[in-house]
Amino acid sequence: MGGKCPHRKVKKRRYSHKQFRRDKFQIKGDDAVYDELKKTTGPDLKPKPPSPFDEDLPGMGQFYCLHCDRYFANLTVRDEHFKTKKHRKRLKIMAGPAPHTQLDADLAGGMGMPDNGPKLMSI
Amino acid sequence: MRLEKCWFCSSTVYPGHGIQFVRNDAKIFRFCRSKCHKNFKMKRNPRKVKWTKAYRRLHGKDMTQDTTFEFERKRNRPERYDRNLAENTLKAIKKIVKVRADRESKHILNRMKGNKSKERKRDAKELEQSIHMVKAPSALQKDPSHTLPKVPVKVSQHSEEDRMKE
């Protein structure tokens, strides 16, 4: 049972794999991704600026999946990723209603909309 | 003193309680207790966790539309202090809390309206099916007042033939 090393539990060992670290810490939050998507693929669609070359990222940061916040080494790998279940699940979540925010929490807790006072400057 | 609401369960977070997480995009997440914090770390969606206020409101368990919700707000421009106003507000708070509690209980009563008949049916069924738990079958045979009256039903007599066929 357990493993080779008695003081390194399975849960700890998992963090040494990149895949697991990505799940836990490195990925953007749902709401951040959602906002980003709204910005780039909203009704007023702007042409995407070419992403800058970054030596530290896989594939120089050229092959990016917006929904999963991941960089890929080349086009074929990214296209392969688009077919995966993880990605399709992510697509479904992002197509749904906006993720939970602090405002939602406040409203659910019985608060009204925030009151910013009267407008001081008239335009 | 600002009373914040927990990001996960929407309960009030008093000063000195809970934990606050500031993400590297400067978004603030407040949690009332470690339970909520842990649930957040597990990336659970409060809309899908049944004990949170977000779930309860979304599924019509709690009152959603009410004028009493308009009083408690995040005020980003503070009111200038006025002694009379403060006094009146303190008086009003008690009344408002009472009104809100009354309306909430009424909402729950309304929600539970159809339940009594359902409960009766369920109870009757349970009584019929498990009366032997209360009274032994042998006792029931002696005193038939606890069982339902027997209704004669016609049964076709062809068991002999069936057995021969098999």
UniProtKB/TrEMBL annotation, chain A:
Q: Name one Pfam family in it.
A: zf-C2H2_jaz
UniProt KW keywords: Metal-binding, Zinc, Zinc-finger
Q: What SUPFAM superfamilies does the record tag this protein with?
A: beta-beta-alpha zinc fingers
UniProt keyword Zinc-finger present: yes
Q: Using the record's annotation, list all stretches that form the C2H2-type domain.
A: 65-87
Q: Per its UniProt record, what Gene3D superfamilies does this chain match?
A: Classic Zinc Finger
Q: Which GO terms describe its molecular function?
A: nucleic acid binding; zinc ion binding
Which InterPro entries does the entry link to? Matrin/U1-like-C_Znf_C2H2, Znf_C2H2_jaz, Znf_C2H2_sf, Znf_C2H2_type
Protein name, entry field:
Zinc finger protein 593
Q: Which organism is it from?
A: Heracleum sosnowskyi
TrEMBL record, chain B:
Q: Which GO terms describe its molecular function?
A: structural constituent of ribosome
Q: Which GO terms describe its biological process?
A: ribosomal large subunit biogenesis
Subcellular location(s) per record:
Nucleus
**SMART domains from the entry?**
TRASH
- Compositionally biased tracts (Basic and acidic residues): 116-129, 157-166
Boundaries of every TRASH domain copy: 6-44
| Record Gene3D superfamilies | Ribosomal protein L24e
UniProt keyword terms in alphabetical order: Nucleus, Ribosome biogenesis
Q: Which family does it belong to?
A: Belongs to the eukaryotic ribosomal protein eL24 family.
Name listed for the protein in its UniProt record:
Ribosome biogenesis protein RLP24
Q: Which organism is it from?
A: Heracleum sosnowskyi
Upper lineage is:
Eukaryota, Viridiplantae, Streptophyta, Embryophyta, Tracheophyta
